[in-house]
Design goal:
By secondary structure, the protein is α/β, with parallel strands linked by helices. About 65% of the residues lie in helices and about 10% in strands. It is built from 24 helices and ten strands. A six-stranded mixed β-sheet has the order 6-7-8-3-9-10, with helices on both faces. A four-stranded antiparallel β-sheet has the order 2-1-4-5, with no helix packed on it. α2 runs parallel beside α8, α5 packs antiparallel against α8 and α10 runs antiparallel to α13. The longest helix is centred in the middle third of the chain and has 54 residues. The relative contact order is 0.08.
Length: about 600
């Protein structure tokens, strides 16, 4: 566990509880050792006539009132058995109860931390891990950890204490027979250790394959409309079957490893039992061991052999769990995005200046190249360009979702000197593909501002031209939209997302092709309502629709990451270029 410092941090507050649970396990193991000792002594000294030689049993018989009294009242032995059994049962109840409660508190803390960490990662870091892999790290990997700490670890500690106490007990009964009874255990331990080291890589491969399968399921559930629209169900089924077969092969490989190992291990266990029986009979015939001693040694050793085997199985489970721990510990150790470094006492009004700004997703291609423009506070900038021209990348730089080269200034301050929290609190983005939560319309609109009043929510809905549609639903604003807004049309989802964004007024608002899903008249209604809002906003509108951009104070036209035209609508339609070409294609009539 030294490798997993963050996991240790969650366990440390509960060390005392685990210590008590371990103590109860030791007491339980010690009491279990009394049973074969009492049984052996009863055979030799209570039923038989031999004097007891075991110091533990001599003390126990004296505690019960002496050998003669116990002989006269054999019920005392039965009562002792019952009392010991009850005590073992009580300890076995307290141990998992205490450790289990601590473990689930720990796992909740880890799960909450992983979710918080995921929420704090940058877009770049989020893109480095697939959704399915991240889901597995935050769910099944933690479940494996819970099982290890609450069950496996406690059982392992209990088994170890049981083995140690068993060894002590054995050697107090008969030294020579005890040596024989543990002769093969070192081989079993060494074999388990070597197996544990060799199987780690196989578990790693299994985890990766399982994460890949989870990703395929998640992607299919998220894109079910696309799959059906393109009639690709068979393709997706085949892809799933291939991933499922790969997972099955990895699982089979693990089972094969275990089959080889445990067949040999169980053979050693049975061989050890046979050695005890054979040599026990020989030693009894020579008079070096009594029937009671042989019975006690055989009972203790028989249980201990299978406990040793079980301990080996637990150690192999630890291998699987340590792989899972390493996986979610990797997430916990990822660097959170720094939201607060930089200037935060600036009053953002919305003036934006790009000066020779460049950005590249990789070293080979520039998504934006030497881009320069200025938009004054409260004005509207339109951005037009073909697919892949860098429009969405441009607007991702303003809230510092990605870092840039060159200079971007907001109200005269260099953007990368302003804290990310400050700039994002003052910037709103409406995406082309909005995401709606499986909640009510009211809750979706108020997502960014849960304390908004009904009047403010309705006002935002009216500006987004969605209020009348909402009132036509049977439950109005309390209508559940379904997962990703499945119960709404594309235009309704987009307008609902617009209402959610404009509910909280920010100095800068960005429409990333967000008006494409609504009709032209609704587009006009939304832009007119926004322009009549009492608080001025700097608007950046990305669109392929000229009618959406024509009233902007300034329009820039982009191609392959570069600005190729700049001006007002009237200026751009008078010069040859991409803007005029698109304008003519769309056949827009301007009054």
């Amino acid at each position: 566990m030294k490798k997993y410092s963050l996991v240790k941090k969650y366990i440390q507050p509960y060390i005392f509880i685990y210590f008590l649970a371990f103590l109860f396990e030791i007491l339980s193991s010690a009491l279990q050792m009394l049973i074969p000792i009492i049984l052996g002594t009863t055979i030799d000294s209570i039923i038989g006539s031999e004097e007891p030689t075991n110091k533990i049993m001599i003390s126990f018989i004296n505690f019960l009132g002496g050998r003669d009294l116990v002989r006269e009242r054999l019920g005392i032995i039965a009562a002792a058995f019952i009392l010991i059994s009850f005590s073992i049962a009580l300890l076995n109840f307290l141990r998992p109860y205490m450790s289990g409660k601590a473990t689930y508190t720990i796992s909740k803390g880890i799960r909450d931390s992983i979710y918080a960490k995921i929420s704090s990662l940058s877009i770049k870091d989020m893109a480095s891990i697939t959704t399915g892999d991240m889901l597995q790290r935050a769910s099944s990997d933690i479940t494996k950890f819970e099982t290890m700490v609450s069950t496996t670890m406690m059982a392992l500690m209990g088994n170890i204490s049981y083995i140690v106490i068993s060894l002590i007990t054995l050697f107090t009964i008969n030294f020579k027979l005890s040596l024989i009874s543990v002769s093969l255990l070192p081989i079993l331990f060494i074999g388990t250790f070597l197996f544990d080291r060799s199987v780690v890589k196989v578990f790693d491969e299994f985890e990766e394959s399982e994460a890949n399968l989870t990703t395929i399921v998640q992607e299919n559930l998220s894109s079910y409309k696309v799959v059906r629209a393109f009639f690709k169900q068979k393709h997706e089924i085949n892809k799933f079957e291939e991933a499922s077969m790969d997972l099955a092969n990895k699982d089979y490989k693990i089972m094969a490893y275990f089959a080889y190992f445990w067949s040999i291990a169980e053979f050693l266990c049975f061989l050890q039992i046979a050695l005890i029986a054979i040599f026990g009979v020989i030693m009894h015939r020579s008079g070096s061991v009594s029937v009671g001693e042989f019975t006690a040694v055989f009972a203790v050793a028989l249980n201990m052999v299978w406990v040793v085997l079980g301990t080996g199985r637990m150690l192999s489970r630890f291998t699987r769990v340590t792989v899972a721990i390493r996986r979610f510990d990797e997430v916990l150790e990822m660097d959170s995005e720094d939201l607060d470094s930089g200037v935060s006492d600036i009053d953002i009004k919305g003036e934006i200046n790009f000066d020779k700004v460049s950005f590249s997703y990789d070293e080979a291609h520039d998504a934006i190249k030497d881009l320069s423009f200025t938009i004054e506070a409260g004005k509207t900038l339109g951005v037009l360009g073909l697919t892949g021209s860098g429009k969405s990348t441009l607007v991702s730089l303003i809230p510092r979702l990605m870092e840039y080269n060159g200079s971007i200034k907001v109200d005269g301050a260099e953007l990368n000197t302003i804290s990310k929290r400050k700039i994002r609190e003052n910037t709103s983005i409406i995406l082309q593909e909005p995401y709606l939560f499986n909640k009510t319309i009211k809750e979706n609109i108020a997502y960014r501002w849960p304390d908004a009043s009904d009047e403010e929510i309705i006002k935002a809905a009216k500006i987004a031209d969605i209020h009348d549609d909402i009132m036509n639903f049977p439950d109005g604003y309390d209508t559940i939209v379904g997962e990703k807004g499945v119960s709404l049309s594309g235009g309704q989802k987009q307008r609902l997302a617009i209402a959610r964004t404009i509910l909280v007024h920010t100095p800068i608002i960005i429409f990333d092709d967000a008006l494409s899903a609504v009709d032209t008249q609704t587009d006009i209604n939304i832009r007119t309502a926004l322009s009549q809002n009492e608080k001025a906003q700097t608007k950046i509108i990305i669109s392929h629709r000229i009618s959406t951009l024509m009233n902007a104070d300034k329009i820039i036209v982009m191609k392959r990451g570069k600005k190729i035209q700049e001006g007002t609508h009237d200026e751009l339609i008078r010069e040859d270029g991409l803007y005029k070409t698109i304008y003519e294609i769309q056949n827009i009539e301007v009054d």
